[in-house]
Design brief:
With 154 residues, this protein is mainly α. The chain folds into two domains: 59 residues, no CATH class; 79 residues, no CATH class.
Length: 154
């Protein structure tokens, strides 16, 4: 179905070449460009709006997806919270939280003078993690914190 929709949208857009503004050709994609690109093709624009609404209601706002999202946000908040006291406030280089960070991140933190600068280092570190690595790190912390047995994988 997705392939057929893409084909139909592309066919419709290419048959309306005169409605595509020349100054937008070769411009990096962004939401404003998309709006301008299809603004003179009412049928296509209406179909896209319907598909967006269907996606929002049946995928994005699906309770199962929202539960996963909520659990992920909660785990992220808990994971970031482990650094608050020792890393952000005290800069306690002997703490377990500090020592759990990669040495490169520890070195970056040592160079920073303010809480905001150290927070940026931690946030950049977490943002650079793959989903799998984050889940391993956060789950390990989560389980140890609650006294659960932890099985380390290699």
């Amino acid at each position: 179905m997705k392939s057929k929709l893409i084909h139909r949208f592309m066919k419709t857009a290419s048959s309306h070449k005169t409605t595509i503004r020349p100054e937008l050709v070769g411009v990096k994609y962004d939401i404003e460009m998309k709006k301008n690109l299809f603004m003179d093709i009412p049928k296509l624009s209406e179909e896209l709006d319907v598909l967006k609404e269907i996606t929002r209601e049946n995928v994005i706002f699906d309770p199962n997806i929202q539960n996963i999202r909520f659990a992920g946000i909660s785990l992220l908040v808990e994971y970031l919270g482990r650094f608050k006291k020792d890393v952000m406030e005290k800069r306690n280089v002997k703490s377990l939280a500090w020592r759990s960070l990669p040495r490169q991140i520890q070195a970056q933190l040592e160079e920073k003078d303010s809480k905001n600068q150290r927070l940026r280092v931690i946030l950049d570190h977490v943002a650079g993690m793959t989903d799998g690595y984050f889940m391993d790190q956060a789950t390990l912390f989560h389980d140890v914190k609650r006294g659960r047995a932890v099985v380390l994988r290699r």
